[in-house]
Each structure stands twice: as structure tokens, then as C-alpha cells.
Specification:
Elements: H1 24-38, E1 43-44, H2 56-67, H3 80-94, E2 103-106, H4 108-120, E3 126-130, H5 135-144, E4 147-151, H6 164-167, E5 172-178, H7 190-203, E6 206-210, E7 239-244, E8 257-260, H8 264-277, H9 283-292, H10 296-319, E9 332-336, H11 344-355, E10 357-358, E11 360-361, E12 367-371, E13 377-382, E14 389-393, H12 398-413
Parallel strand pairs: 1-10, 3-4, 3-5, 5-6, 6-7
Antiparallel strand pairs: 2-8, 7-8, 9-14, 11-14, 12-13
Helix pairs in contact: 2-9, 4-5, 4-8, 10-12, 11-12
Bound molecules: pyridoxal-5'-phosphate.
Protein name: Aminotransferase
EC number: 2.6.1.-
Domain Aminotransferase class I/classII large: 44-382
Length: 415
């Protein structure tokens, strides 16, 4: 947990020290400790690391850039050639009509998200986040100085759009939408996204659309929010979109993503943040990105591998009553282990100790920080509904996933 602020928090107590660290680090540490202690490998179902590898032509693009000496700085927004290729990809694959000067290459979409939040934050402004969310979104909101406000999900973990307006107010500046979602696996349909965008227009919110899992939809299809405002003049657009090379091309360690800003004003704000934060994204990695954009067959193959793993492993969890339905997209399934009588942390610890299978308790995906009027986190609670949820990653090796799920179901049924 984060260090809590002293009663009279002073300048010596940096606000960032009060922000909760990602819960995933606790699981990583526990899994590492067990491996060291027993010498046995842990079945790592807590982590979104794929079993497939970066396509060889992408690795070649990376190494060739290095051996050719293409290792100098580019501009803060990235190489023009890559941004042009991304603009073409956005048009053909995402229906997103934009220009290269609104596209920013970033060292992972994570950094792009953090930078874009920083570029739009204003003192005291509120950011709407899903009540169960990727923990990094919460950290980024707090670091940028936003006050997080959480919006409700339906029982099936989709966004409860009709109740969005209930949690917003005059200080709401933006809403984060993540489809397909980490950790819920929910995929928003076009009609829902249209309704959400209409609300954003009505209340004058920016929309931040995190599409890191755009290529991993198994039911329905991925709709990019920005495609729904493609016919508006840029100065009336409000959607920021973020995309990642990590998932589609198995490039997690390369750190490559991109942000698309709605118009020139928002682009110039983000440019300043990027100049000050990164100077420029890594040049050889940008060449790898150029090669990746042609690797369409690899993307299809990767999606089918995760789908096959989902279809083979997860029905066991549905039969065991731990999962209502297969996730429609993404790399994760969110299980409810409440019927075992254990909370998520106890379940995850017990499962690891008894079976060498690591899963992520979802308490940390639903934290509720209390923020004082200076913007400091003074206390961190969690959403009661998440106390029985655990996240299982489905992107890893299919046999290991099936073995891990079998062990999990046995463990749950013995309780
Ligand atoms: C929802 C979501 N957004 C963004 C990211 C960041 O991806 P990257 O920084 O590797 O592009 C992740 C990574 O797990 C994620 O789950």
C-alpha cells in the first residue's frame, strides 16, 4: 500500500508517495518469492504477457535500424514516416479520419496516456473512471492532479451508460473508456459508444478512449470511438485515442504506442508534455513499429490464439460457477470467488501456495482513494463488490492456462 500522508502533510511529503502502487507488484513479488523458495516455476496467470512472440520481420526492423545507425533523436511526436503510416492505419482499420500532426508516438501507450492526462488536467477537475479499472489509469489520474470519480458498471461488467450523468458534475472534465476492457473483458457496442459520446457532448467532457486491446475482440467487433466523430470539424471533436503495439504484435518490452489527439490545440498541449517528458520516442523501436504495421497476418494469428485459449479454458470456470460468461474481448477474465467463502486476496494467496498458480486479486482494480482539498490522497479504501473478484490472464500458453484453470477450479471446489 501507499505511504499515508502525515497528519500535517507538508511540502516534504510528496503527493505521489500517497498514491497506491499497482496491486500487480504484490503478486509478482509473491510469485517470485515462491519460485526462489521452491525452485518450481509458477504458472503466471496474473500477468498479461503473451505466449506468442514479436513477428521476425518486426525484430528485423528493430535490429536493422540499430545496425544501420538509425539511433538519433526524432521529434517529440515521433518519425513523420511512422505517423503517416499510423494515420493510414487509423483510417482503414479504425475509421478514424485524422492527420499525422495529431498523432503522437509514445514509449508505450501507458506513457501516452499519462502525458495526455497531464496535457488536459486543470486544478480541481474530475476524471470519470470505470468502477473496476486498470490500476494504472487511477495512478495516472492522480499524478496529473485529477480527482477521480468512479462510474458504475452493470452486472455483466459493461458500462452503465444511463447512470453516467448521475456521477458527473460541473467539475467533470473527461471520461476514460477502455474497450475491450482490462480487467473485465467487456466490449462496448457501437450504440453504447454513440450514447456515451452524446453524453460527453451534452456535458462537454473530453473522452479518452484506451484501445490497447483493439485487435482482441471475440464477440462483436471493435469500434473506435473517434470514428463516431470523424465527420465533425476537428475543433468540435473531443475524443483522444490511445493504441498499443504491445498486445497486437507481442512487443510489450519494446515500449511502443501512440496517442491521437482530437485537434491542433490539444496536439500542441500534448507536444509540450512530450517534449518535457521524453524528448522523443526510441528511434529503432519506431522502425520496428513501421515493420509491425504490415504484419496483418500475425495480428490475426495472435487474436485466434487468445480466442482458442479462451474457448478451451474458460468454459470450465463457467461450469464451476466462477464466471458468468466468456469475456467478449481483451486478455483477461474476471472471476467471482465469493462462493468459496474467501475474499480475493485470501483466495489468490491460498491458490498460489497450494497449486503454484498465480492470479491477481481484483481489489486493487477498484481502489477508492480519498483525496483532500490539496489533491493529496489521505486514505485508500476499495469497492466492496471487487473484494471477491480475481483476474486471470488468458493470453499465455494455452496448455498452462488450461492446467492453471483446472487447478483453480479444484482449489475452489475443495472450499
Ligand atoms: C488497458 C490498458 N491500457 C494500456 C496498457 C499499456 O500498454 P503499453 O504501455 O504496453 O502500450 C495496458 C497494458 O497492460 C492496458 O492493459
Amino acid at each position: 500500500m501507499a505511504a499515508s500522508a502525515p497528519a500535517s502533510a507538508s511540502a516534504e511529503f510528496p503527493p505521489a508517495a500517497g498514491i497506491p502502487p499497482s496491486c500487480l507488484h504484490d503478486v509478482f513479488r509473491a510469485a517470485d518469492a515462491l519460485e526462489r523458495e521452491t525452485g518450481r516455476p509458477v504458472n503466471q496467470l496474473h500477468v498479461g504477457e503473451p505466449s506468442f512472440r514479436m513477428p521476425p520481420e518486426v525484430a528485423e526492423g528493430l535490429t536493422k535500424a540499430i545496425t544501420d545507425g538509425r539511433t538519433t533523436y526524432t521529434s517529440a511526436e515521433g518519425m513523420p514516416r511512422l505517423r503517416e503510416a499510423l494515420t493510414a492505419k487509423l483510417e482503414t482499420e479504425n475509421g478514424h479520419h485524422t492527420t499525422p500532426d495529431r498523432v503522437f508516438v509514445s514509449p508505450g501507450s501507458c506513457q501516452g496516456l499519462a502525458a495526455l492526462l497531464q496535457s488536459i488536467a486543470t486544478p480541481g477537475a474530475e476524471l470519470l473512471l470505470p468502477e473496476v479499472h486498470w490500476p494504472i489509469h487511477l495512478q495516472q489520474a492522480l499524478l496529473a492532479g485529477f480527482r477521480p470519480v468512479f462510474y458504475p458498471l452493470r452486472a455483466d461488467l459493461g458500462v452503465d451508460i444511463e447512470r453516467l450523468a448521475d456521477v458527473s458534475g460541473p467539475r467533470t472534465r473527461a471520461i476514460v473508456v477502455n474497450t475491450p476492457s482490462n480487467p473485465t473483458g467487456a466490449v462496448l457496442e457501437e450504440a453504447e459508444l454513440r450514447r456515451l459520446l452524446a453524453l460527453a457532448e451534452e456535458h462537454n467532457w473530453y473522452v479518452i478512449s484506451d484501445e490497447a486491446y483493439e485487435h482482441f475482440v471475440y464477440e462483436g467487433q471493435h469500434v473506435s470511438l473517434a470514428s463516431l466523430e470523424r465527420d465533425l470539424p476537428p475543433d468540435r471533436r473531443r475524443v483522444f485515442s490511445t493504441y498499443s503495439f504491445s498486445k497486437s504484435y507481442a512487443m510489450t518490452g519494446c515500449r511502443l504506442g501512440y496517442v491521437v489527439t482530437p485537434n491542433d490545440v490539444t496536439a500542441s498541449a500534448l507536444r509540450v508534455v512530450q517534449e518535457a517528458s521524453i524528448i522523443a520516442p526510441a528511434t529503432p523501436v519506431q522502425y520496428a513499429g513501421l515493420a509491425a504495421l504490415d504484419a496483418h497476418a500475425a495480428v490475426r494469428r495472435h487474436r485466434e490464439m487468445v480466442r482458442a485459449a479462451r474457448d478451451e479454458a474458460l468454459p470450465m470456470l463457467v461450469t464451476a460457477g466462477l464466471l458468468d460468461a466468456l469475456p467478449a474481448g481483451g486478455w483477461y477474465a474476471l472471476l467471482d470467488v465469493g462462493r468459496t467463502g474467501m475474499d480475493a486476496n485470501t483466495f489468490a494467496e491460498g491458490l498460489l501456495a497450494a497449486t503454484d498458480v498465480a492470479v491477481a486479486p481484483a481489489t486493487g482494480f477498484a481502489l477508492r482513494p480519498v483525496v483532500d482539498n490539496t489533491g493529496r490522497v489521505t486514505e485508500v479504501g476499495s469497492l466492496p463488490m471487487a473484494r471477491h473478484l480475481v483476474r486471470v490472464a488468458i493470453c499465455g500458453d494455452r496448455e498452462l492456462l488450461c492446467a492453471g484453470v483446472r487447478a483453480l477450479v479444484d482449489f475452489a471446489s475443495q472450499r
